[in-house]
Write a structure and sequence with these properties.
This protein is an alpha/beta fold. It has 18 helices and eleven strands. The strands form two sheets. Strands 1, 2, 3, 4, 9 and 10 form a six-stranded parallel sheet that branches. A five-stranded mixed sheet has the order 5-8-7-11-6, with helices on one face. Helix 2 crosses helix 3. The chain is globular, with a radius of gyration of 23 Å. The chain starts with a strand and ends in a 14-residue tail after the last helix.
Length: about 500
């Protein structure tokens, strides 16, 4: 029997930079570090890099985090890329890095155009950094529906990773009957294939739910020998069946959430990798060796961290971080409604103005990721060569860069952390509102249309649990108190 083990880490931080300065403001809650990116790097990302752990596991890194590491922690950044190269040598030419939706938007809650852009940006950012096409993509919060999977398959993604409760039913083709998983959920020890309505296909892995919970929340990751033993004990007794035991958790579990877990994972991977009976692998290699023969259907609009589907990111479903029993999250709906209104109010104005200069305003947005990755004059020249319908004046070019920056901010304002936690007054909601404010100011400057008033009316319907915080209008003002409304900034592009 062939036995394989894979440990996946989802490494991610939201875009913490001030959208006007590109720098992270001090975050006192991260003390003794200046901000949470610095603290988690010291506790997790750097120890992993120093121990070579990335080369022996499966992982995805959020583009917004990699961008920060590239600028502020270049040694760690280079180690991540180098260890992906090492993993290709270890795992039959398949790199362990997976792509990720660009800035962690809950894709089933986004409109179709935004989903396409998030996937396109995530793929292009990955190609730029890792020097290869991604085989797999991590869906933020593993939030999934068929429309999202269609977009992944259309853009060349071969597989994704989901929680076991996201499997609706399974069958062994060609003549097998569909069966619902039992109480234990779908068997995670094999790969599955999903046939999409378009006739495209995508492969899906469902991680071991019980083991992953033990790693993330029950302290299993704190003991390397115990972790290795539990992984090796998860194989079934079927002698002829190739099996994959795999777990998935936030990468920050190792060292940040659980002190010492980074060392324990290193020890566990070393132990498993040194034993001939069990092999370490990654998902790309396993698919090459054991392509799926079982079909699966998914639970529409489901995720790994909300038993109510994707309600955690738009409604008062009862899910929160649990730090304030009795608090409600009714503020989530008006926050999302306000952002949706802002996006939809700016979209036709963007389309109208951009159509005067480029072939396809939305295709231009999808390609604009190249301008953030490389803001050089040569990069701009190539962009215009591929997208513009005619030679543009300097003034027109500056207007186009601002229009594209408006769209970038309109994406960043949907980062999932804004809805995940207990209250509207948290740092996470303030981060998304800063990006919304930047979008508002760019739209008003570009189009001469007042948007902030109506946006604030909608935000005022979001009520904090803390009377001292007040409503969304006040949170917006607090989040943007350092913005000078009268200044006319140049685009960061």
């Amino acid at each position: 029997m062939e036995r394989y083990v894979c440990v996946h880490g989802h490494f991610y931080q939201p875009p913490r930079e001030d959208p006007r300065t590109g720098e992270i403001a001090p975050e006192p809650s991260a003390q003794p570090y200046a901000n949470w990116n610095e603290r988690i790097t010291a506790e997790c990302y750097r120890p992993f890099a120093e121990r070579g752990v990335y080369a022996r596991m499966s992982f995805d890194f959020g583009p917004t985090l990699l961008s920060w590491l590239e600028k502020k922690e270049p040694q760690v950044y280079r180690a991540v890329l180098q260890q992906d190269l090492e993993s290709q040598k270890r795992f039959s030419g398949h790199g362990s890095a997976m792509a990720q939706g660009y800035n962690h938007i809950i894709l089933p809650l986004a409109n179709h155009r935004d989903r396409v852009t998030q996937v396109a940006w995530g793929i292009r950012d990955f190609e730029w950094r890792f020097g290869r096409k991604p085989e797999g993509m991590w869906l933020p919060e593993t939030a999934v529906d068929l429309e999202t999977l269609e977009i992944l398959a259309e853009q060349g993604i071969a597989f994704t990773l989901l929680a076991p409760h996201q499997a609706l039913r399974v069958r062994f083709p060609p003549h097998g009957h569909w069966k619902k998983p039992d109480e234990e959920g779908i068997d995670p020890r094999r790969a599955y294939e999903l046939r999409l309505p378009s006739k495209r296909r995508i492969r899906i892995f469902f991680y071991d739910g019980a083991l992953s919970r033990a790693v993330a929340f029950e302290g299993l990751a704190s003991d390397g020998l115990q972790l290795a033993a539990r992984l090796e004990a998860a194989f079934s007794a079927e002698p002829s069946q190739a099996q994959l035991v795999h777990v998935a958790a936030d990468g920050e579990t190792y060292g940040h959430h659980h002190r010492g877990a980074d060392k324990a994972l290193d020890e566990a991977l070393g132990r498993i990798g040194s034993e001939g009976a069990v092999r370490l692998t990654n998902y790309g290699e396993y698919l090459e060796k054991r392509p799926p023969i079982h079909e699966v259907e998914i639970v529409e609009k489901s995720s790994w961290s909300c038993p109510h589907g994707v309600d955690r990111w738009w409604s008062d479903c009862g899910c929160s971080s649990g730090g304030h029993p009795g608090w409600n999250q009714r503020w989530r709906t008006p926050l999302r409604n306000g952002l949706d209104w802002l996006r939809d109010a700016a979209a036709p104005l963007y389309e109208r103005e951009t159509a005067r200069m480029v072939k396809d305003p939305w295709a231009a947005r999808d390609r604009s990721i190249d301008l953030w990755l490389d803001p050089s004059a040569e990069s701009r020249r190539k962009f215009l060569e591929g997208q513009a319908t005619r030679p543009l004046s300097e003034e027109e070019q500056q207007g186009l860069w601002k229009l594209l920056e408006l769209q970038r901010q309109s994406q960043l304002m949907y980062t999932s952390c804004g809805w995940f936690f207990d209250d509207l007054g948290g740092i996470e909601a303030m981060l998304v509102l800063r990006h919304a404010a930047r979008a508002v100011r760019l739209a008003e400057e570009l189009f001469g249309v007042p948007l902030e008033g109506r946006f604030l009316e909608l935000l005022s319907e979001a009520k904090s649990n803390d009377p001292a915080v007040g409503d969304g209008r006040r949170v917006y003002k607090m989040a943007t108190s350092h913005f000078d409304e009268r200044s006319e900034e140049k685009s960061r592009v």
